[in-house]
Each structure stands twice: as structure tokens, then as C-alpha cells.
Amino acid sequence: MLRRRYEILLPLQYNDGSLVPIEDLNGTREELLAHFGGISVQPGTIAGIWIHEGMRYEDSLLRITVDVEDIPENRQFFVDWKPTLLQRFRQIEIYITSSLIDVI
Q1: 40 or 104, which is more confident?
Q2: Most Cβ neighbours (<10 Å): which of 22, 37, 45, 53?
Q3: What is the model's pLDDT at position 57?
């Protein structure tokens, strides 16, 4: 059975530089865990640097991965959930990527 890995990069600060409350990060992890039954959280942070409309942003990001069945319902969950994340983390964009995986 084919599986798909979804990777979410969550910011640790809002775009204005203030810290995202730990409750929002923990709540987001718990939502994923409750829905899918398992997640992976990469220790440490990822540095992201990007420019939007002439303004430079530097982010510290938390990487969460979720491995699930490759079915349309799972993809739709992330499509429907993304606006919630954009609002919760006050972001212009949040990357949620996916790739097929073959678990041996």
C-alpha cells in the first residue's frame, strides 16, 4: 500500500518577530496526533529566509511529519486545515508539502 508523507513547517515566531505561544504549537501537534494517530517532530529548528513584496523575513521553523495512507481524504484534511494554520500563526504562507513514500 502506498503511503504519503506530509511535512509541515510551523513558525516559532510571528512575522513581527514575537514568539508564538507554546500552547499554539502544542495544540497543533495534538490536533494532528488526534486525527492521524501518529506524528514525528524533528528536534531543533530549521532556518528559513524569504522575501515577500520586497520585505525580508527570517524564520525559525519546527518540522512535523505525518505518514498516512495515500488517499484523497487525507490530502483534503491538509487542504482544509491550512487556512486555520495561516490564521493561528499569523502567516502569509505555511508550507505543507507531500511526497509518496514506500515503507519497507
Answers
A1: 40
A2: 45
A3: 86
